[in-house]
């Protein structure tokens, strides 16, 4: 079980314990067999790791920051990058990581719908700015675009990968032909 998400890891055939991280969640692990996974659109996931302590973590935030003056409770705060980043780092420090050794991978920040506010761009810019201000080196950067991504992160080893998720056109419904059963006997009755 990961302390931040409260989710039980599922052991899969590949030998890894898969843990899904959804919006507003985070996960931290020092176990090389734990594989965190998330799917991102305009959201951003920061994958941080300490190569010496061999501990890493991932978050999944929805928006960069609350609106000025907006009151946000503790649960909702985790959906914002400004809180999600600090919570993730603090969880990692508790497991032996050091802030000065952290490395980062960033994913997501897509703008999925043209003509709408570019939330993905704002999220990506926030994450990059946060890392720069905290002097955390950005090793992998896969941000922006117009498609969703599926991200997997082997946190303890600092290994990540992302795959573009494309929408598939809906399949046309197939109408089944009725099956006619012959009468129980060979007799035909006419009306």
UniProtKB/TrEMBL annotation:
Q: Which GO terms describe its biological process?
A: chemotaxis
Q: Which residues form the signal peptide?
A: none
Keywords for this protein: Chemotaxis, Hydrolase
Q: Which gene encodes it?
A: cheD
Q: Which domain of life is it from?
A: Bacteria
Is the Nucleotide-binding keyword given for this protein? no
**Functional summary from the UniProt entry:** Probably deamidates glutamine residues to glutamate on methyl-accepting chemotaxis receptors (MCPs), playing an important role in chemotaxis.
**InterPro entries from the UniProt entry:** CheD-like_sf (IPR038592), Chemorcpt_Glu_NH3ase_CheD (IPR005659), Cytotoxic_necrot_fac-like_cat (IPR011324)
- Cite a single GO MF annotation: protein-glutamine glutaminase activity
Family, per entry: Belongs to the CheD family.
- Catalytic reaction equation(s): L-glutaminyl-[protein] + H2O = L-glutamyl-[protein] + NH4(+)
Protein known as = Probable chemoreceptor glutamine deamidase CheD
The EC category is hydrolase
Q: What is its EC number?
A: 3.5.1.44
């Amino acid at each position: 079980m990961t302390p931040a998400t409260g989710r039980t890891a599922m052991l899969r055939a590949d030998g890894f314990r898969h843990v899904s991280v959804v919006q507003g969640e985070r996960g931290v692990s020092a176990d090389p067999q734990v594989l965190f996974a998330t799917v991102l659109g305009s959201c951003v996931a920061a994958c941080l790791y300490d190569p010496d302590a061999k501990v890493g973590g991932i978050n999944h935030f929805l928006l960069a920051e609350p609106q000025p003056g907006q009151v946000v409770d503790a649960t909702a705060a985790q959906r914002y990058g400004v809180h999600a980043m600090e919570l993730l780092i603090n969880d990692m420090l508790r497991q032996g990581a050091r802030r000065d050794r952290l490395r980062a991978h960033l994913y997501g920040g897509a703008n999925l719908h043209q003509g709408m506010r570019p939330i993905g761009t704002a999220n990506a810019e926030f994450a990059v700015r946060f890392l720069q201000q905290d002097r955390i080196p950005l090793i992998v950067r896969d941000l922006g675009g117009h498609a969703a991504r599926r991200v997997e992160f082997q946190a303890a080893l600092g290994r990540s990968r992302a795959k573009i998720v494309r929408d598939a056109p809906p399949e046309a419904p197939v109408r089944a032909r009725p099956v006619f059963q012959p009468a129980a006997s060979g007799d035909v009755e006419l009306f």
